[in-house]
Amino acid sequence: VARSFSELPGNWRTGWLNLFHFWQEGGFHNVHNIMIHKFQKFGPIYREKLGLYQSVNIINPEDAATLFKSEGNYPERFMVPPWVAYRDFRNKPYGVLLKKGEAWRSDRLILNKEVLSLQVIDCFVPLLNEVGEDFVKRVRVQIEKSGRGRWTADLTNELFRFALESVCNVLYGARLGLLQDLIDPEAQKFIDAVTLMFHTTSPMLYIPPSLLCRINSKTWRDHVQSWDVIFRHADKCIQNIYRELRLDRKSTKEYTGILSSLLVQDKLPIDDIKANVTEMMAGGVDTTSMTLQWAMFELARTPVVQEQLRAEIFAARQAAQGDMLKMLKAIRLLKAVIKETLRLHPVAVTLQRYTTQEIILQDYFIPAKTLVQVGIYAMGRDPKFFTKPELFDPARWLKMDSTYFRGLGFGFGPRQCLGRRIAELEMQLFLIHMLENFKIETKRGVDIGTKFDLILIPDKPICLTLRTL
Ligand code: HEM
Ligand code: 2DC
Known about the structure:
This protein has 19 helices and eleven strands. By secondary structure, it is of the alpha+beta class. Strands 1-2-7-4 form a four-stranded mixed beta sheet, sandwiched between helices. Protoporphyrin IX containing FE binds at residues 77, 96-97, 108, 167, 279-280, 283-284, 287-288, 291, 342, 347-348, 351, 409-412, 415-419, 422-423.
């Protein structure tokens, strides 16, 4: 018979003391390393308490499977307190990110059809493809300017602009022009606001929403201002499309983006459409751009893999004869490159679910309504689940005995990432165009670590060189 919940290893009896230790260990930027350390100390399951929040943490793919198979039709993850607090403070509606129960499920089913389903994602390909091509043009201009056949830079902001341009093209069916030299300052303000919003979230992660606005700290004020900019700018973009649609300026045949589909369908109230489109616009900037930056960095450090990938892309291009949909079906290694990048550099340090019934993990009873976190960053770097985890070896995904519950970068099940298909296509098309045109290089021996800023990001600027092939 399994052991009881109170027998779980970990220092879960002293919540505030733990928060203090956590803080001392540089915790707010080091969550991912502290977790690895705890799994080493306590084994594959431990219980912890930070401030008021209790959780059980697991690392084993089999345990993740047990958790997700029991999640039911209304899975709930940890609700990031400052995000909830902002919406309550300003009286803004929730989108799927923060909704629960039936309200979440009905929104989510409508959105899935427009954002995730196989029928609709083919429509995204031309929209994302043109943004990828424009990024290449922009790099070419920079290379010509340098007069040396190469361009060396920290691409962070360039990639933010690429990512926002991409997600807006599928949301609104319209270009914002962010890959030109002079861009709308409002768009840059939006980009900076999303980064600041994430950055100010992490220190407030374990403070309950009800307390947050009352303390009125600088972090909270910055956080509110960031969301204000995000909501205001998204609202402007949405209004533009709404107006155009009412004037009926758009043709009815061509695909004109997620927002117009949702408006024309009229299944979701306008406030819910707005809330969800705003979440997607904000969720589409730092996530894909950081993943692409890591992917290019890893490809630069492993030229052999870069050459294999380029060969696959050239062959796929040849075979597809200009048919992009066909080409995307012939790039197995590229898809593995993205999985491998997310293994070493996941955006989310953990996946979380509240249990809906009692389950058994590692022979311990876990009661219903417990927050269980799957440490996907720790899992991706553990030799028990990936041989030689430190190696960037995308081909491992094509030859592994089992990838069972190991590729969890976008989460799992009905609550998985809503933007997954957009993100995957956007990243595939970007890398196709970049590898067809440039060699990606980086200085040898520069080690880049990871920093927790709510999402995981590089701990220092990554400098890349793009060289004309
Ligand atoms: C949720 C990862 C890009 C919008 C999530 C979750 C993860 C994730 C791990 C939680 C899933 C779970 O709990 O099972 C990523 C990664 C991305 C990415 C790795 C890119 C590399 C995007 C993009 C969008 C987006 C481009 C917008 C179009 C969302 C939303 C949710 C979500 C709205 C909440 C869904 C819900 O609660 O129903 N993402 N994401 N993400 N993501 Fe993404
Ligand atoms: C952060 O302990 C660490 O995709 C916490 O596009 C647990 C936690 C809960 C939810 C996670 C969050 C972490 C990281 C960022 C995620 C978020 C769910 C969605 C969000 C993974 C792991 C993200 C980046 C969305 C954000 C959309 C938003 C800007 C509107």
